[in-house]
């Protein structure tokens, strides 16, 4: 503890981790704004001079990596890595955090479109200096969102809670993690990773910072409905077994009902007035068939997840990395440092 306090007395190095997927319209402008902010924080003595902005190109199909590459060549405040294909937002921020872990005292993950307010960084760093290992950015309201985003986000949080996956409402992935929290996260080897659900379970002293969300200036949301549903299913299946418990309960209730029906039918048969009921038979068998297939599907989701975990494939593959510590360096690389 004493060590921690001593450590916080020295100015910490901050890495901004920025996932990017087809962000060619916004990336140059966002990079400039982020650099201005980082330089201001360094000048104010809030963060160390070696602080950096790390872009993670999540298999973009447009010019995103070309732009990131040029930025990194020109200015040592930027560094970047590129995936071999699109692995998704969660994998992109994880890769950035894990790469920054050995160089940074703290990292903040932020979206490339800068919808999240950069000015909240001051508050994040303040909380870190007060001893927090995790600081969650929570949005103030959803006024800037369209109707679809508003409704889907509300349903997402309600559904997650109902199915036993507790996430902080209105907290996306704008958050600060200290080196200590990153080291703890490194120990989680699961392939099926849902950071919003997982990080709160790690414990540690934490705090919340509220910020305003701006509208996306250019480009469109990369979170398609399909990606949102995948995120929700991954979140639930990686954090909770409640859907399987619900199936068990449902199975028990249906069995109980069947026993009652069997007793009733036998009684009916003995009393001699059994009336043929075609519709009832059809409806019940269709309903039961549907329920059984749906339940099998849910169980299958979990079996599939176990299958993926058992194979333990890499969570992402880094194809290129560009990272310079000083201006006269060519840039070091993990694997190949491919020119785009
Ligand atoms: N993103 C990513 N991989 C994906 C989808 C999105 O790295 O497969 C990044 C994207 O470039 C952005 C962040 O995740 O930096 C959030 O995406 P977006 O702004 O499109 O989501 P929204 O704000 O609409 O929820
Ligand atoms: Mg966005």
Automatic annotation (TrEMBL):
<dbReference type="Pfam" id="PF00535">
    <property type="entry name" value="Glycos_transf_2"/>
</dbReference>
<dbReference type="InterPro" id="IPR001173">
    <property type="entry name" value="Glyco_trans_2-like"/>
</dbReference>
<dbReference type="GO" id="GO:0005886">
    <property type="term" value="C:plasma membrane"/>
</dbReference>
<protein>
    <submittedName>
        <fullName>Glycosyltransferase</fullName>
    </submittedName>
</protein>
<feature type="transmembrane region" description="Helical">
    <location>
        <begin position="246"/>
        <end position="270"/>
    </location>
</feature>
<dbReference type="GO" id="GO:0016757">
    <property type="term" value="F:glycosyltransferase activity"/>
</dbReference>
<feature type="transmembrane region" description="Helical">
    <location>
        <begin position="282"/>
        <end position="303"/>
    </location>
</feature>
<keyword id="KW-1133">Transmembrane helix</keyword>
<dbReference type="InterPro" id="IPR029044">
    <property type="entry name" value="Nucleotide-diphossugar_trans"/>
</dbReference>
<keyword id="KW-0808">Transferase</keyword>
<keyword id="KW-0472">Membrane</keyword>
<keyword id="KW-0812">Transmembrane</keyword>
<feature type="domain" description="Glycosyltransferase 2-like">
    <location>
        <begin position="16"/>
        <end position="184"/>
    </location>
</feature>
<keyword id="KW-0328">Glycosyltransferase</keyword>
<dbReference type="InterPro" id="IPR050256">
    <property type="entry name" value="Glycosyltransferase_2"/>
</dbReference>
